[in-house]
């Protein structure tokens, strides 16, 4: 962080040292001379268009197949396209899957597919065979019921694991409310729609949409054009002609007035804020380049208005940004950030203030010069990748751009004025009809959110569920049933999981669980004893990532190999929670019954354990459903949510076999693999 700030500071210092009149836009330097080259191209009789960019720096080649169909609505079978894409590349009708994968691995190559095409890369000497395999998998797919069921279950598992992800809900609801669920950009895949899809639906989708009419094949690498042309013609000419169904897209509309669209997520430890409005921006528009720079200044860089105010000045978030993306069918302006619950209302005020600023105040000439310099640097660096040239050539074809669009790109960037930036901001950012989507914990943020004002008026709030369906305002005022006591709540939980006698008979237990993070397996081992001994170890690929131990002599933590002994206050709090069943100790006092709170549609008793921890118990079953803990990490106040589901009996006691944990925007779900009661634990485990 310091390095980035220092570089930016030195850059600003060098610029300011020229004694520039800041009331005038600085003169731009000479535009770098660009030599983009001209990709070679040809078209097959079935409509497939081929673009070839020769690059001999390395003996490698890549093939990118893009099917540029207009977006279409999948309706009650949303996910059929995704499933179709996941089934492509599982071998072919002529090559069994294992043999296909073995040959790809032997060549040190890579092949993948999605609903809109595919990608392959490898050594140039295998170019011909790599092309054959890619074409065979694309044109002769091996759609089987067995593979379909596997991919369907993988997709369902992914959707299920993201049910409580605040960022996933925010993205889904924001798109649905912006475009409408009857628009391809607004509809979403759910467990229900995926379950509706059959193998026959996948096969039909493939026949209708995986056709060459709007298809492009971009080739980049050390290849011989004439030889490659013959190989592509031989392998892809068998692709049967076809046209995708003609679709009529709904026209998205902005809100009639600025409003907050709130989604209650009781497990949210941060609020996701997304300020958005529909806009009409295409790459062919005269405002395209001013819009790029307006967004760069507003939220497209580290030094942008939004990041500087929300992160650097206020400390509300780790990062904030905005996006203005051109699109042929429907485009949207968005400005977003994840912020702490306690500052959700204040962050909304800052967002609206900065959007008004970019619209109503002319950008400082020096800020615009820096934004241009950043764009020039990014553009020139991107040209070092041959794939960039292919993508630019493809954009010229698909976006109907003039032939000199990219050769004059930097000239157009440097020609943008402060007036152009303001006009673009005024045209594409609609603060008077903005939808401010907030996904967060209503019991903590709604009271202050209801007081947020914009242009002298309180912003009205509309309420939605996690699937963008309008709903009623959450009710947090439920009173405790008459006669309900803390002791009754705790005893109901104790009885629900096995009874006091059973729990007091537990001298020790151990738990082994497993989770996945960014494709890596995490292994959790936890052990507790009635002597207040505690050990928890989280490992990645067999190596300890974090470990915590409490024993008679004290306690310590190990993070990334660094040991830290617990201080007395830390040790005291840790020991209170180290008992096999802390609720037995809660009966002795020190905790309070706070009220009732709804979590995932269920009413729960809210029990305050300490200033840092609150537990929630299902009113109906008595089982614990959630722990909420807070603390400071690297100078930031952080809140973590642990959820408990899928209770199963072990040695006469119910344990949760699914333990979810959120820390910031990250969510992990540990699935318990083994629990042992009164065995497999010794004093040596706590050394």
N-C termini distance: 38 Å
The count of β-strands is 27
Radius of gyration, in angstroms, nearest whole number: 29 Å
Major sheet size, sense and barrel closure: 13 strands, antiparallel
The global form is: globular
Side-by-side strand order of the widest sheet: 20-19-18-17-16-15-27-26-25-24-23-22-21
Number of contiguous helices: 21
What is this entry, summarized?
With 687 residues, the protein is α+β, with helices and mostly antiparallel strands.
What layout of secondary structure does this protein have?
Elements (H helix, E strand, L loop, with lengths): L1 H15 L23 E4 L5 E6 L5 E8 L12 H8 L9 H10 L3 E5 L2 E7 L3 H13 L5 H17 L4 H14 L11 H6 L2 H11 L5 E7 L3 H12 L22 E6 L5 E10 L8 H12 L5 H9 L6 E5 L6 E10 L3 H17 L4 H18 L3 H13 L10 H7 L2 H11 L6 E6 L1 H8 L3 E2 L2 E2 L2 E4 L21 H12 L2 H5 L3 E10 L2 E10 L4 E7 L2 E9 L2 E6 L2 E4 L2 H10 L5 H4 L5 E8 L2 E7 L4 E6 L5 E10 L2 E15 L2 E11 L2 E12 L10
Parallel strand pairs: 2-6, 7-11, 7-14
Antiparallel strand pairs: 1-2, 3-5, 3-6, 4-5, 8-10, 8-11, 9-10, 12-13, 15-16, 15-27, 16-17, 17-18, 18-19, 19-20, 21-22, 22-23, 23-24, 24-25, 25-26, 26-27
Notes on the protein architecture:
This protein is 34% helix and 29% strand. The chain is built from 21 helices and 27 strands. Strands 20-19-18-17-16-15-27-26-25-24-23-22-21 form a 13-stranded antiparallel β-sheet, covered by helices on one side. The chain has a six-stranded mixed β-sheet with strand order 1-2-6-3-5-4, with helices on both faces. Strand 17 and strand 18 form a beta hairpin. The two termini are 38 Å apart. The N terminus is likely disordered.
């Amino acid at each position: 962080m310091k390095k980035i700030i220092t570089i930016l500071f030195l850059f600003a210092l060098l610029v300011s040292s020229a004694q520039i009149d800041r009331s005038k836009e600085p003169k731009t330097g000479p535009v770098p001379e660009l030599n983009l080259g001209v990709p070679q191209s040809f078209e097959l009789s079935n409509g497939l268009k081929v673009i070839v960019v020769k690059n001999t720096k390395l003996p490698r080649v890549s093939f990118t197949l893009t099917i540029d169909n207009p977006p279409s609505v999948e309706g009650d079978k949303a996910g059929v396209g995704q499933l179709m894409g996941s089934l492509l590349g599982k071998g072919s009708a002529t090559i069994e899957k294992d043999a296909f994968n073995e040959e790809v691995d032997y060549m040190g190559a890579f092949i993948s597919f999605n609903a809109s095409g595919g990608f392959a890369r490898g050594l140039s000497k295998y170019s011909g065979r790599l092309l054959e395999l890619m074409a065979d998998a694309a044109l002769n797919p091996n759609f089987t019921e067995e593979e379909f069921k596997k991919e369907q279950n993988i997709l369902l598992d992914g959707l299920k694991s993201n049910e409580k992800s605040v960022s996933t809900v925010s993205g889904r609801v924001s798109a649905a409310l912006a475009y409408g669920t009857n628009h391809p950009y607004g509809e979403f895949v759910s467990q229900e729609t995926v379950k509706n899809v059959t193998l026959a639906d996948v096969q039909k989708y493939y026949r209708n949409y995986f056709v060459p009419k709007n298809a492009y094949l971009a080739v980049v690498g050390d290849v011989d054009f004439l030889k490659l042309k013959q190989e592509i013609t031989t392998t892809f000419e068998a692709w049967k002609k076809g046209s995708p169904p003609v679709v009529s897209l709904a026209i998205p509309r902005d809100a009639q007035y600025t409003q907050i669209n709130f989604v209650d997520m009781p497990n949210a430890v941060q609020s996701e804020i997304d300020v958005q409005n529909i806009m009409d921006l295409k790459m062919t528009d005269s405002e395209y380049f001013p819009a790029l720079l307006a967004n760069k200044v507003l939220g497209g860089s580290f030094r942008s208005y939004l990041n500087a105010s929300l992160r650097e000045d206020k400390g509300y978030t780790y990062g904030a940004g905005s996006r203005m993306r051109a699109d042929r069918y429907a485009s949207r302006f968005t400005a977003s950030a994840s912020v702490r619950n306690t500052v959700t209302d204040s962050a909304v005020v800052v967002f609206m203030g900065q959007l008004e600023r970019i619209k109503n105040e002319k950008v400082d000439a020096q800020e615009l010069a820096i934004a241009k310099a950043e764009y020039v640097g990014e553009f020139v660096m991107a040209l070092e990748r041959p794939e960039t040239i292919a993508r630019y050539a493809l954009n010229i074809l698909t976006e109907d751009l003039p032939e000199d669009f990219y050769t004059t790109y930097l000239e157009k960037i440097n020609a943008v004025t402060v007036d152009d930036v303001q006009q673009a901001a005024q045209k594409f950012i609609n603060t008077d009809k903005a939808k401010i989507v907030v996904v967060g914990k209503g019991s903590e943020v709604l009271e202050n959110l209801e007081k947020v004002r914009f242009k002298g008026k309180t912003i009205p709030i509309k309420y939605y569920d996690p699937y963008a369906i309008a709903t009623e305002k959450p009710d947090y005022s439920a009173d405790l049933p008459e006669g309900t006591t803390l002791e009754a709540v705790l005893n109901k939980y104790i009885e629900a999981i096995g009874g006091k006698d059973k729990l007091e008979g537990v001298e020790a237990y151990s738990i082994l669980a497993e989770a996945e993070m960014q494709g890596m397996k995490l292994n959790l081992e936890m052990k507790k004893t009635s002597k207040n001994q505690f050990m928890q170890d989280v490992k990645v690929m067999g190596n300890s990532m974090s470990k915590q131990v409490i024993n008679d002599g004290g306690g310590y933590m190990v993070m990334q190999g660094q040991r830290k002994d617990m201080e007395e206050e830390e040790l005291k709090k840790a020991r209170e929670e180290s008992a096999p069943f802390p609720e037995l100790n809660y009966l002795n006092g020190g905790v309070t019954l706070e009220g009732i709170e709804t979590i995932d549609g269920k009413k729960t008793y809210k029990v305050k354990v300490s200033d840092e921890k609150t537990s929630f118990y299902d009113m109906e079953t008595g089982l614990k459903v959630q722990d909420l803990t807070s603390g400071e990490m690297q100078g930031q106040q952080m809140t973590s949510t642990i959820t408990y589901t899928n209770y199963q009996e072990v040695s006469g006691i119910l344990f949760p076999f699914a333990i979810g944990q959120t820390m910031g925007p990250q969510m992990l779900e540990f699935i318990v693999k083994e629990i042992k009661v009164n065995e497999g634990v010794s004093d040596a485990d706590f050394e």
